[in-house]
Write a structure and sequence with these properties.
alpha+beta; single chain; 4 helices
């Protein structure tokens, strides 16, 4: 019985070993067909800086004062941009509320009531008192595998 298992196991191991092999050559990125320098404006080529365009402030990118002023007014009065920023703030707030559902909620409540009762046998009036207290914990699921998150 052991002899039947050994060939099957070795065949499975050999198949797994061959499946992990790759005969594909290493990828080499082709050279981009774009020049490394900007075309010459005044006879001298402008070199591309190492600073990414996203890190350059727009005020330093545009040199014309009137253009800077126009862009500043457009950004200040751009209602679509304001709405987009407010939508992002709203989504962040809702996300924070949803993240609160990941934790259990504990509530504590205590109430008391007193009301006049009937007459006792000796003629004195009685007072009926009722006190209740409670601690509640909402249903909570331990999230071991991130289903709730």
């Amino acid at each position: 019985m052991l002899d039947n298992r050994v060939p099957k196991f070795s065949v499975i191991c050999l198949a797994a070993l061959l499946g992990a092999c790759s005969m594909m050559p290493a990828y080499q990125r082709p050279v981009a067909p774009v020049a490394t320098d900007w075309p010459a404006l005044n006879g001298a080529a402008v070199s591309i800086s190492a600073t990414p365009a996203a890190d350059i402030e727009w005020q330093s990118f545009f040199s014309d004062g009137k253009l800077r002023q126009l862009i500043a007014v457009a950004l200040r009065n751009n209602r679509d941009l304001r709405v987009a920023v407010l939508n992002i703030e709203q989504a962040r707030a809702q996300f924070q509320i949803r993240r609160a559902d990941q934790y259990p909620t504990v509530n504590l409540a205590a109430t008391g009531a007193r009301q006049p009762g009937g007459r006792a046998a000796n003629g004195d009036s009685t007072i009926a008192s009722s006190y209740t207290a409670g601690l509640t914990l909402t249903a909570y699921e331990l999230d071991f595998f991130g289903r709730v998150a």
